[in-house]
Amino acid sequence: MQYSIGQLSEAAGVTVRTLHHYDRTGLLSPSTRTPAGYRRYDDADLARLRQILFYRELGFPLDEIAAILADPDAGVLDHLRARRRQLTEQLERLTHLAALTDRAIEVQRTGVRLTPEERLDVFGDIAFDLSYATEADVRGRDSAGHRTAMARAAAHSKEDWRTLMREAAAWRRDLLAAYDDGLPADGPEAMALAEEQRRHTARWFTPCPPGTHRRIADDFAADPRAFALVVPPPQQRPGLAAYLRTAVHANAARLDAAPETSEGSPDR
């Protein structure tokens, strides 16, 4: 079957301009021409064009496609394997860049005013899933409290964050020691750690009366992203989130039963 350049363009889904370019470079020339000089392609030309488009879809440059088509039995498999390695590397890089972009978006949504260099200096290689902190519809989230926490976080300086992270690391070390030593979650040591974490939250982010702390601890046990904000995944233990939740609830019950104070009073 014979095809004009327009018919071949329509059959293969490419532009006439592309076919002109392929002809000029010698990648795909028409089998024949009419006496008036018009290009005429046959089924073999169409099959070759489809091969070219296949390799183009895989990202091969035109000169490499020309080499493959010039001797299809010489190293085609090697070309394909090499291209697959390149694509795999690109995919890994793009996946990494997408993850970095997602984290940058979430950091911007929190309003935290730290440059990437400052965040690296303060947080090191600790990677938080900040999507939890920026989702307004998280179960049990009080919108006013959430806005307060985000506003206060945005106002923290680099030194504030450095101090905050130092306090959090010391608390986390004591929590892990209590858990690893088998201290009861509703015992005095664990409740003291829960109270320390409640006061830390109130000092740096948002007022945290016992009722609010209960809801936060419930989120710790229910949502891995929430718990990762206080204990990064590499440091977690099976059952640790539930252990902290029990300690928080026991501490909240103790505070509810105690005389009201300005910091420890239950929310009513």
UniProtKB/TrEMBL annotation:
<dbReference type="Pfam" id="PF07739">
    <property type="entry name" value="TipAS"/>
</dbReference>
<protein>
    <submittedName>
        <fullName>MerR family transcriptional regulator</fullName>
    </submittedName>
</protein>
<dbReference type="InterPro" id="IPR009061">
    <property type="entry name" value="DNA-bd_dom_put_sf"/>
</dbReference>
<feature type="domain" description="HTH merR-type">
    <location>
        <begin position="1"/>
        <end position="71"/>
    </location>
</feature>
<dbReference type="InterPro" id="IPR047057">
    <property type="entry name" value="MerR_fam"/>
</dbReference>
<dbReference type="InterPro" id="IPR036244">
    <property type="entry name" value="TipA-like_antibiotic-bd"/>
</dbReference>
<dbReference type="GO" id="GO:0003700">
    <property type="term" value="F:DNA-binding transcription factor activity"/>
</dbReference>
<keyword id="KW-0804">Transcription</keyword>
<keyword id="KW-0805">Transcription regulation</keyword>
<keyword id="KW-0238">DNA-binding</keyword>
<dbReference type="Pfam" id="PF13411">
    <property type="entry name" value="MerR_1"/>
</dbReference>
<dbReference type="GO" id="GO:0003677">
    <property type="term" value="F:DNA binding"/>
</dbReference>
<dbReference type="InterPro" id="IPR012925">
    <property type="entry name" value="TipAS_dom"/>
</dbReference>
<keyword id="KW-0010">Activator</keyword>
<dbReference type="InterPro" id="IPR000551">
    <property type="entry name" value="MerR-type_HTH_dom"/>
</dbReference>
